[in-house]
Design goal:
With 328 residues, the chain is of the alpha/beta class. The chain has 2 domains: 154 residues, P-loop containing nucleotide triphosphate hydrolases (Rossmann fold, 3-Layer(aba) Sandwich), CATH 3.40.50; 118 residues. The chain is 53% helix and 8% strand. It contains 15 helices and 5 strands. The protein has a 5-stranded parallel β-sheet with strand order 2-3-4-1-5, with helices on one face. Helix 4 links the parallel strand 2 and strand 3. Bound molecules: zinc ion (ZN). The site of zinc ion has 9 residues, from helix 3.
Length: 328
């Protein structure tokens, strides 16, 4: 059954809080996308609801239900649509439920994912509950950035941050879970930047892993003499079947170009795409700064216009900007 990787300090603090009965009624869990905010909130819920001697055990019925999001006293509001706000009616319904006694457990827990998507009226409605919380109710607001929440809401909640995992931990996890993706392990670790969930979604979604593979292949061609036709062979319409794939691919291109530009400027910082610094050095030697800048501009234009751009001409534009044999 699922076990928790990282965030050990927060979890051990909650075990102590359970023993002393000192628990706040509202927490903000802040952390990057894929850093395990929801898993942490569920694990804390297990800490409070599990009756095993060594709680949380993650293997009893209660823990299993909580970890899979199916426990009646741990209500989750999972709002995944980034483009739309969490409706005030949804929040009001949640609040109503907070005043109903828990069924199986002593405590009722509410988890609001992407809490920053609540509009101001919805946040204000929640604020009233935070000011006079019902007994034995705890709220967890999950967010990538707590500053997107109302200051009054923030001041009435305790903020916890998800822990960044080491590259070694992320590497060992994806090696276990994705043995079929050996060729992408190194880049995935770099791209995940300590967020295991990000690494997992990158490797489980075919579109995303294909984009990383394609970017890697393209830039490895760039290390040699890159003619327009050789680049076009990699980036043809078959490998970039639709606009969403193009957008996805271009985001990795910007990261790769950014690594080369940064290397060129003499700054020796953390890379964002390449796992191998030597590759970046060779590419920086191969591409002049003006060429890099113009390639970067082209990629950014394609990203900006991806919804209306002609796919074929966009691919040609990119290849033209990157190749060695095309005079503008
Ligand atoms: Zn348990």
């Amino acid at each position: 059954m699922s076990f928790i990787i990282g965030n050990t300090k927060v979890l051990s603090d909650f075990k102590k809080a359970k023993e002393t009965g000192r628990l706040s009624h509202a927490y903000i869990i802040e952390g990057a996308e894929g850093s395990g905010r929801l898993t942490l909130a569920r694990a804390i819920a297990c800490t409070f609801s599990c009756h095993s001697e060594n709680a949380p055990c993650y293997s009893c019925d209660t823990c299993k239900k909580i970890m899979s999001g199916g426990h009646q006293d741990v209500r989750e509001l999972i709002h995944l649509d980034r483009a739309s706000p969490i409706k005030i009616d949804t929040v009001r319904e949640l609040i109503k439920e907070a005043y109903i006694k828990p069924g199986e457990s002593e405590r009722k827990i509410f988890i609001v994912e992407n809490a920053q998507q609540m509009g101001i009226p919805a946040q204000n409605a929640l604020l009233q509950v935070f000011e006079e919380p019902p007994k034995n109710v705890t709220f967890f607001l999950l967010t990538t950035n707590r500053n997107l929440l109302l200051p009054t809401l923030k001041s009435r909640a305790v903020t916890l941050k998800t822990e960044k995992l080491t590259d070694e931990t992320v590497a060992s996890e994806i090696e276990k879970r994705f043995p079929q993706h050996t060729g992408l392990w190194d880049e995935t670790v770099i791209l995940a930047d300590g967020a295991l969930g990000k690494a997992i979604s990158l490797l489980s979604e075919e579109k995303t892993s294909d984009s990383v593979t394609l970017t890697k292949e393209y830039f490895s061609k760039m290390k040699e003499y890159a003619s327009f036709s050789s680049l076009s062979m990699i980036l043809n319409q078959k490998s970039v079947p639709d606009r969403a794939s193009l957008f996805n691919l271009m985001t990795y291109f910007t990261l790769a170009l950014r690594d080369i530009l940064v290397y060129n400027s003499g700054y020796d910082g953390k890379l964002m795409f390449f796992a191998n610094r030597e590759t970046v050095r060779i590419l920086a030697d191969r591409m002049s700064e003006s060429k890099l800048m113009s390639a970067y501009d082209t990629v950014c234009t394609v990203i900006r216009d991806h919804a209306k751009i002609n796919l074929l001409s966009a691919l040609s534009e990119i290849n033209m900007a990157m190749c060695d044999d095309f005079q503008r």
